[in-house]
Amino acid sequence: MRSQDWFANPARPDMVAVYLERFMNYGLTPDELRSGRPIIGIAQSGSDLNPCNRVHLQLAQRVREGIRDAGGIAMEFPLHPIFENCRRPTAALDRNLAYLGLVEILNGYPLDGVVLTTGCDKTTPSGIMAAATMDLPAIVLSGGPMLDGWHEGRRVGSGAVIWASRKRLAAGEIDEEDFIAAAAASATSVGHCNTMGTASTMNAIAEALGLSLPGCAAIPAAWRERAQYAYATGRRIVEMVEEDLRPSRILTREAFLDAITLTAAIGGSTNAQPHITAMARHAGQTVTVQDWRERASVPLILNMAPAGTHLGEGFARAGGVPVVLKELARAGLLHPDRMTVTGHTLGANIADAADADGDVIRTVAEPLLPAAGLLPITGNLFDFAILKASVISDGFRRRYLERPGAAGVYEGRAIVFDGGDDYHNRINDPALQIDETCILVMRGAGPLGWPGSAEVVNMQPPDALIRAGITSLPTIGDGRQSGTSDSPSIVHCSPEAAAGGGLSWLRTGDIIRIDLNTGRCDALVDEAEIARRRAEVPPAMPASQTPWEAMYRAHVGSLEGGAVLEYAVEFQQVGARLPRH
Ligand code: FES
Ligand code: MG
């Protein structure tokens, strides 16, 4: 055991007592710590500052009991909090910060394996990124979604109800009190967002990667099974340490390809793109634009908001991720022979899963949508961006994408905003003459520009258009959009404007042409004019407000590359060597 280098190292008897003594002051004995039992870290992501993950404060007790019963010793420690909705200027800054912190903890302390407690959006990728860098045995315990919310006799999911109510607020249909009541009705219990937003997406992806026990992702936080999974997860990590079952055996290229396939099938968040890319790169694997393109044709088979109607409870009752994986495997869309944390293959894990119920989970033969993946887009405004096809409304499809003679082609006048404040200040300005053919563009919202990359690309139309029944316009931006929003958006434009990408020279009034048949998006501006504008427009970037923002900007890459700290990718299998005394 790695931990025995601290606690029972015959070469350094002078150090052993120093390492041991303070652990005794909460009652551990030297015999326990020197017995060669696996010492298991519980990476605690729950706190008062991360309410989405707060259930883990209780679940940790069951994890500990599982670890003990399997012969291990538990050591729980806090992670840097990541709370999507409250963290300014954006929780995206925290993913890489929590990653760095966890790598240091796993490297620097006497731990043999780790339970990653996950939930809110970025808690999942940050933990997996660190486990990949270290390559110590690791298992994911999801916290689970909140119970379903109900408002005015209808099921309402997190995020989606906020976007919908914001539009009703803008249209003058409800007041602020109604708005807050609708939001509160969607936040029913302990747990993370209960739509297929980023949190549910990333926990489903962790399970599909093979990093959590089968069925773990979808169980609501408040169900008894959640605490039972906590216990089983604690037991299993001890066995994994004894089997030396490390992430490098699980996080293969095939695992990440299957994660991309799953994302399409569940109508997952656009944020899956940078997070899958980041996890893969830290695991030493490559996923390419072609890999995303090939899986854009995977059908949507999960009927869960925002692409469908059900919420977390319905998904869990239908059997959760194993049922989706079984259906995809049956259609030959997965790699079932790869290793998982159970010590068995993915195919073995899902062999006994229920069949698709035909309502919450559809079959590949009768999907909700035929091609639901995240579609990579390129053109003269950016080298890379993605579009989420599964949430484009039927109305939008009919109005713009299925016009006779121009199917899939859309041309509109660009309305360009520099960051969220500029959008809020000017969106209702009549001088912009925004009509139902315009395309809203957000720049300065990428990893460098914001900094961190913000979920601000899903802009709603001006109030006057909403009152006239136009509830969404196409949007383009170098930031991200919330995993629960339903606007037809092209997001993650890379390189971003602040890095000199094409959005930096785009101007309000330019015509943008989007062709979904060819996957291109171009501004109809000629080369000479582009060159002239490039020479005169320096990319805008607000000053860094904290030391971490400055350090983040010095090392972060594009959303195309996962917005990782680029130098950190060089560090692979760090746990193979012990740190010096
Ligand atoms: Fe934390 Fe959605 S805000 S899970
Ligand atoms: Mg989000």
TrEMBL record:
<dbReference type="InterPro" id="IPR052352">
    <property type="entry name" value="Sugar_Degrad_Dehydratases"/>
</dbReference>
<dbReference type="GO" id="GO:0046872">
    <property type="term" value="F:metal ion binding"/>
</dbReference>
<dbReference type="GO" id="GO:0016829">
    <property type="term" value="F:lyase activity"/>
</dbReference>
<keyword id="KW-0479">Metal-binding</keyword>
<dbReference type="InterPro" id="IPR037237">
    <property type="entry name" value="IlvD/EDD_N"/>
</dbReference>
<keyword id="KW-0408">Iron</keyword>
<dbReference type="GO" id="GO:0051536">
    <property type="term" value="F:iron-sulfur cluster binding"/>
</dbReference>
<feature type="domain" description="Dihydroxy-acid/6-phosphogluconate dehydratase C-terminal">
    <location>
        <begin position="359"/>
        <end position="563"/>
    </location>
</feature>
<dbReference type="Pfam" id="PF00920">
    <property type="entry name" value="ILVD_EDD_N"/>
</dbReference>
<dbReference type="InterPro" id="IPR056740">
    <property type="entry name" value="ILV_EDD_C"/>
</dbReference>
<feature type="domain" description="Dihydroxy-acid/6-phosphogluconate dehydratase N-terminal">
    <location>
        <begin position="37"/>
        <end position="348"/>
    </location>
</feature>
<comment type="similarity">
    <text>Belongs to the IlvD/Edd family.</text>
</comment>
<keyword id="KW-0456">Lyase</keyword>
<protein>
    <submittedName>
        <fullName>Dihydroxy-acid dehydratase family protein</fullName>
    </submittedName>
</protein>
<dbReference type="InterPro" id="IPR000581">
    <property type="entry name" value="ILV_EDD_N"/>
</dbReference>
<dbReference type="Pfam" id="PF24877">
    <property type="entry name" value="ILV_EDD_C"/>
</dbReference>
<dbReference type="InterPro" id="IPR042096">
    <property type="entry name" value="Dihydro-acid_dehy_C"/>
</dbReference>
<keyword id="KW-0411">Iron-sulfur</keyword>
